[in-house]
Specification:
This protein is mostly helical. The protein is built from 20 helices and eight strands. It is found in: Membrane.
Length: 666
């Protein structure tokens, strides 16, 4: 019996356009005809074709590239084997079945599978090639000979033998050029972006980042306009009244932005047919399944022994928390003992130096130094996280984000706090903020856009040099004629702290978070900072888009439903900004440093407590989920319940009828 009526045959499914989406890199060489049956690369290509994949081989300058595409039916059968859950027409998530493909809701671009789901299917197909014969198979590669044992996976074997150099996702040229024209090079729309197309091409994690950055930049227009007015007009004696009003408006703006982003996030998930919450580690590059979590392994081990199972769960839970506490304490201790003296020394030298040129040079050297130091701290954090008992890959990534942001928080703000707390010199504080905002943003943009090009140029130079050494100096200019080879030479979208747990989104989110903290925590000292941030973010949207589409390889998709730990970091920065701006107002009001609780100071203290109360109480007034999303979710749940109830009643009635017939026959 089919669960959904009106099922159509497989050939009635609209065929999606098949594009090459995966590239496999192997060394380039000439294979004799009589050696092809045992050549490992030829065997690999044959296995790819046996899976139903479309294969195209391209001979580059020094390597051979195997381009792979999968017809819809091949992906559908792989999705069924992976038991991928997808949204159905009645709003219920069920395991995918290729024969019932018409029962499942399609993506916003009309495709059956998202890019993240397709990538999972490709990994399952490629890394699932196994020797099912009764004996080992002898494979050759030039003069090297090895055995493909029974039950051994072929692609892993070739990777371990360093025959397969890399497996990486390819850009779809048609979609890439379309996004270039409608997104990366479309400056006139400022913050408007084709989010659905970004989701279809890059996956949920990157699409959510750009949706967040676009909304954040649009919302920045209000404080930017307010800050410009305060900078352009001299309010005289009313300055001490206007600044508190500006501060209150900015805090309310940040609180509302945080809450309304949650609403937009849930609306995006509803539009993309993504259930929340979901298992966040299924789409990550390592391909680690849910079955690898310690909780599931324990449940399998102890079975129905509830007492032992409960004890083991509690032991692992608290052991993991203690390990996280130990690692966090180690990071905090390192920041206090090692990083704090370095930051205070920089702040003191900056205060002593009189030349503005020397100050800018010192700030530039300092920013380069902290990049290097933070990379070391990030690598240490990655090693520490390996000993934590986190549930999945995204939880480990969130733990890494918290630790590394602690390092950056100290580096970015301790010097500013030094000028604000000890010297109470607002003129110097504004200069520091301007230099930090301008120098750091310019350096980040230069590094983001120049480094990938330099890496790409250096790789092309190495390939040309290697080819010239092989062929001799008489060879002419070497051209890279195939796009797949150019993509292979491009750098990957990786994080500055390493690729173990995070990709390039870590650096992009970190840049936005540090900017948010800088403009929020010192808003009263430099209201014009919001205008700088707005201009930078408008440029950042297009620069990041151009970087992903033209300068880097296509990123490996990561499945995620939120911005993760970064949302908690933004919430923390809002609370910090309430405290720091109240302190700045107190220092402005109490110029003589008497610290008397006069009516003005008392009003500032009351305002601080009121704003903190509003911060933690605003979520009660603005729900995190729009009404239409909640209504659709309730409707889908009701439809699913009614459908399942009807099917269950039919099954029970059928069973009773069968039982009655058997009883009568007896």
């Amino acid at each position: 019996m089919k669960l959904f009526g009106g099922g159509q045959e497989m050939n009635a499914v609209d065929e999606e356009q098949t594009a090459f989406e995966i590239g496999v890199v192997v060394p380039k060489r000439n294979v004799k005809e009589e050696e092809k049956t045992s050549d490992c690369v030829e065997v690999l290509v044959k296995e790819f074709r046996n899976l139903g994949l479309v294969v195209e081989r391209v001979h580059g300058v020094v390597d051979e590239f195997i381009k792979l595409a999968a017809p819809l039916e091949t992906l559908g059968r792989a999705a069924a084997e992976l038991q991928i859950k997808k949204r159905t027409a009645i709003g219920m998530d069920l395991q995918f079945e290729w024969e019932e493909v018409d029962a499942f809701v399609r993506q916003p671009d009309g495709s059956v599978f998202s890019w993240c789901e397709r990538f999972r299917c490709y990994r399952h197909l490629l890394y699932g090639i196994i020797n099912k014969s009764r004996s080992s198979v002898t494979l050759r590669f030039d003069d090297k000979e090895f055995c493909w044992e029974v039950g051994e996976y072929l692609l892993q074997k070739l990777e371990s033998e360093r025959i397969v150099k890399e497996v990486f996702p390819l850009h779809d040229e048609i979609k890439r050029k379309k996004l270039l024209h409608t997104w990366a090079l479309h400056w006139w729309d400022f913050t408007n972006q084709p989010i659905d197309e970004i989701y279809a091409y890059f996956g949920a994690k990157i699409a959510i980042y750009f949706a967040f950055l676009g909304m954040y930049t649009r919302w920045l227009l209000f404080p930017a306009a307010f800050g410009l007015i305060m900078h352009m007009f001299d309010f005289g004696s009313l300055q001490l009244l206007v600044l508190p009003i500006f501060f209150v408006c900015i805090i309310l703006w940040a609180i509302m932005f945080s809450q309304f982003w949650k609403r937009k996030n849930s609306a995006l998930l509803a539009r993309w047919q993504i259930s929340y919450p979901v298992r966040t580690d299924l789409g990550y590059r390592q391909g680690v399944g849910w079955s690898s979590s310690p909780s599931v392994e324990l449940a399998k081990k102890w079975g129905t022994d509830k007492t032992k199972e409960k004890e083991m769960f509690q032991r692992i839970e608290w052991f993991g928390r203690l390990m996280r506490f130990r690692n966090d304490a180690f990071i905090i201790f390192s920041i206090i003992c090692l990083q704090l003296p370095f930051e205070l020394a920089y702040a003191h030298i900056y205060e002593v130096i009189e030349s503005d040129i020397m100050k800018v040079g010192l700030t530039t050297i300092y920013l380069f130094a902290i990049q290097f130091l933070t990379q070391i701290g990030g690598k240490i954090s990655v090693k520490l996280i390996k000993y934590e008992n986190n549930e999945n890959t995204e939880k480990r990534a969130d733990s890494l984000v918290y630790k590394v942001f602690g390092l950056y928080f100290m580096q970015s703000y301790i010097g500013v706090f030094y000028h604000a707390l000890l010297h109470r010199n607002f003129s110097t504080l504004r200069k520091v903020l301007i230099q930090r905002l301008l120098v750091s943003q310019v350096l980040e943009n230069l590094l983001e856009n120049i480094l990938p090009y330099l890496k790409y140029s250096y790789k092309k130079y190495r390939v040309r040099s290697k080819k010239k050494r092989e062929k001799g100096s008489s060879i002419g200019k070497i051209q890279f004629a195939y796009r797949v080879e150019k993509e292979y030479l491009k750098p990957s979208y990786s994080a500055s702290i390493g690729m173990e747990l995070e990709d390039g989104l870590f650096d992009d989110f970190l840049e936005v978070a540090l900017q948010f903290g800088m403009i929020m925590m010192f808003a009263c000292a430099f209201p014009l900072a919001f205008a700088f941030a707005t201009l930078n973010n408008i440029t950042e949207i297009r620069a990041d888009a151009l970087k992903l589409l033209a300068m880097l390889r296509r990123p490996t998709p990561r499945f995620s439903t939120t911005i993760g730990a970064w949302l908690n970091i933004f919430q923390f920065l809002i609370v910090m900004s309430i405290c720091t701006n109240c302190a700045l107002l107190v220092w402005l009001y109490d110029e003589e440093g008497k610290w008397k609780i006069e009516p003005g100071l008392a009003a500032i203290l009351v305002m601080e407590h009121v704003l903190l109360l509003i911060k933690f109480g605003f979520s009660r007034f603005v729900p995190e989920e729009p009404a239409w999303v909640e209504a659709n979710r309730v409707k889908n749940a009701t439809n699913a319940e009614n459908m399942c109830s009807k099917q269950l009643l039919k099954s029970i009635s059928g069973a009773r009828t069968t039982f009655g017939d058997v009883k009568k026959s007896q």
